[in-house]
Amino acid sequence: MKHWLWLTILLSATACSPQDEGANPTRSGLWSDPKIWPAGQVPREGEVVNIPADLAVTLDVNPPALKGLNVYGILRFDNKDLQLSADWIMVHGKLEIGTPSQPFRNRAVLTLTGNNPNENIMGMGSKVIGVMKGGVLDLHGEPRNGWTKLSESVAAGSNGITVLDPSGWRVGDRIVLASTDFNPEQAEVRTITAIAGNTITLDSALRYPHFGEITYGVDQRGEVGLLSRNITIQGDEASSQSGFGGHIMSMQGGTLRVSGVELLRMGQRNTLARYPIHWHLMGDAPGQYLKQSSIHQSFNRCVTIHGTSRVEVVGNVAYNTVGHCYFLEDAAESKNLLENNLGILTRRPNSQQGERPIIPTDINPATFWISHPDNIVRNNVAAGSHHTGFWYALPENPTGPSATTTIWPRRTPLGEFSGNVAHSNWDGLMVDRGPNKNTLESEPTYYNPRTNPADGQNQYDDVKNPPVLAEFKNFTAYKNRGNAAWLRGIHHKLTGAKLADNAIGVTFASSESTLEDSLIVGDSANRGFAESWEFRGVDGRSLPRPWAASNGGPIQDNFPIRGFEFYDGKIGFRNVQFVNFQPLQIQNAQGGQTATREAAAMSYLRFTAFAIDSRNFAQGASFDNAKPVYLPPRPEPTPDEVAKDDNADGYRGGVFVDVDGSVSGSPGRAIVFNNPFLLDTNCTLRAEWNAGICNYSYGRLYIYNESGGNIAPVSLTRNDGSNPVFRMWGTPRGGDNLQFGASVIKGRSYTLGVTGAVPDKLKLRFDDSAPGDFITLAIPYAGEPFIYRDYWIDNRNKLARAASRAEFDASPGDRYWSEGGSVFVKLVVRNQPGRDWAVLDICRNDLCK
Question: What is the pTM of this model?
C-alpha cells in the first residue's frame, strides 16, 4: 500500500468519533485467513496493515515484517509461540496478548524495527507502540517472581548462588545480581543452567563477591532480578548500536495494562518522550499499571509517569538504564503507587557513547525520581545508581506541559515513603535540589509540607497554616559513597532507619527535624571488593572515598565516616544505636602509605560556612564499639588554602546539646568544637573527640550588613580574662558575604569589630534562646546611633540612651549606653509566645524608618 494511501485511511479513521471510543467488532477471524482482509490476501512484507473497527483478528502465524500496523478493532495473540515485527503499531482499538485472568503462557516476541528518527507517527515518533484515545494495550505474561535476595554470601569466582525464592525461574532464564559494594558497576548478568531447590547454577563464574547476610541488624542481602519473561517487547538488534530503541506511549483516553513482560532495547537516546513505557498527560488513570515486568538495556529511562495520576508500578525489575529510571516527570503526578520495584545500575549519560542528559539533572541520575511528594513509594530497592537512589526533586510548581501555579509540591504533604532500600549509590535518599522552573537545573529545595499548600502567604505560620510532618519510615541504606539520607526543609522525621557502611549516615539541612528509633552501623561484616587501584582498609574493606591519593602520592584526605551529621537546625535524634564507629588504618593497594581514617557516631557537616544551630541535640544515644563524637579540624592548609578555612564560619561554631547525658554522661551538657572562643575553664576537653564538654548554654549571634559593602572579616572578642577572638568572613550568598554568625555563651559580654567603618544599617539577631536569655555587645561607634527593637512591627520601639552604665546593665534590653567611642547594647529575648530571638537595628540618621 502506498504511503499516502495508508495515511489517508489513518486520518479518516481518527476523525471518526466512534472509533476514537474503542472497538466493537461485529466479525472475527484468523490472521492467516485471506477472506478477512479487504484485498482477499494476507498482509505482505513491508505493508501498513489496518485492522478495521468491526474486525477482531487472532494472530495465529508469524507474519512477515510490516511497515506499520493500525489496530482499530482487536488484535489478539493465539495460544502459541508467535512473533510479530513492525516499524510501528498504533492502537485505537485493542491489542491483546493475554488477559489479567488468563495470562499468555506461550512465547511472544514483538519487535519494533523503525530506523528513521525523523518519522513521526501521530506525533509519537517511530518505533512505537502508541495507545490512542479509546485504545487498550493489554499485555499479560506469566505471573512470575520478579526478584529475590541472596540467602548467603557468594565469593568471586563462584558459578552458583543460593537465593531466598527462585520459584517459577527456569533453566535458560537471564538474571542480574546487584552490586553489594559502593561501586554499582559490580552488577552482573548470568544465565541459569541448573536449579536445585534454592540453589542456582550459572553459566559462568562471578567476577565480584556478592554479600548475602543480615549484618549487625542491617539487611545487606544482595538482590537478584529476573530479566527473562515469556512476552518480550523489544527494539531490533540494530538498536544496540544506534541507541534508537522502541517505546510504548499511551495518550489521554488510552488504557495501558502490562504485566509479566520483558522490555528490551527500548527508549530512544537523547530524545524527550521516547521511553520504554510512558503514560503521557493522561490525568487520572486508575486501573492502569505495569507489574511484574523487566526493563533492561534501555537507552532512555525505564518507566515514565507524566502528567498522570493513580497508576500502579509494582514488582518490576529495571537494569542498565540511562538517566532517571522510575520517573515522575512534571510534578503534577500524584496518588501513584510505586511498590516492590527493583532498580539496578542506573547510569548517567556517557558522552563518549553519544549520550547526553534529557534534562539537566540526568547527569546525576536517580533510580527513583519523585517530583511530587503525594505518591506512595513503598518497599522499593534502588540497588546501584551512578548518583542517587531515591530523589525527591520537588519544583516550586509543576513544569513542562503540566505547568500550573495551583500545585505546590514543595508545600504538599508526603504521601508515603516506607520500607525502601538504597545501596551502592552516591546518595541513598535525597530530599533537596529540585529543578528550577526556568532551566530545570537543580537548586536548593526547602520541603515545607503544610495543611494548605496553596497558602504561600502563611507558609511559615504554624497557626494559620499548620505544618504536616513528613515521616520517612523504615528506610534501609548501605554502601553509599555520600549520604544514606540528606533532607532539607522543616518538620521532617526519619524513623526506623537501618543504615550501614555509608560515608555519612543522616544529614538534616533542616529545622524541626529528627531521626528516631534507628540503627546506624559504621563498618559492618560486608567488606566489599576494593578494585586494584583503590585505597582500602588494612582488613581489605572497600572505602566510600577510595581516591584518597593520586598518582601514587601520599594520602590526601582520609574522610572520617560519621553516623549523624549536625547541620542547620533545630535538628537532632532520639533513641539511636550506633555500632562500629572506630578509627581504621587505610593503605594503598600495595600495602604502603598507611593513614588513619577517623570515625564517629556524631559529627558535623565538614568545613561549612553556614550556621550550625546551637539547639541541635542528641537524646537516647547508645554505643556499641563506637566513638561517640569526632569534630574534625581542617587538615593543615597550604598557604593558598588558609582563606578557605577562615571562610568556614559555620563548623568552627559547632555546638549540640546532650539532652539526657547519653553522650557525655552529664545531662544538659553542650558538646562544642575545640575552639577557644567556645571553651573556658568550665569545659572538659576530650582530645580524641576534638571537642569540649561544657556546662553552658549557647545561642547564636547573627550580624547583617544591610548597607552593602565588604566589612569582612568581622571579629567577636569574648570579654573575659582570656579574651578569645572569633573571626568571620560571612556566609557566602551570591559572593556578597553580608551575613555573619557565631555561637556565643549566653549571658556573656562580647566586643564586635569590623573591617572599616560600622555600616550605616546594621542588624543584630540573638537566636536559639529562651525568654530572659541575653548577651551584651560593645560596638565601636562614632556619634549617637538610632537603635530599634522590632522596628518592622512598631518603629516606636526606639531604644533610649541609659542615664548611666548601671541603668544600662540593669535594663531589660530597652536602653543602650555609649562611652569611649563604643556603643553598648543588650540583646534580651522577651517573654512572648513563640519568641526565641531578639533583634536590634542600629542605624545612622534614623535610616531604620
Answer: 0.95
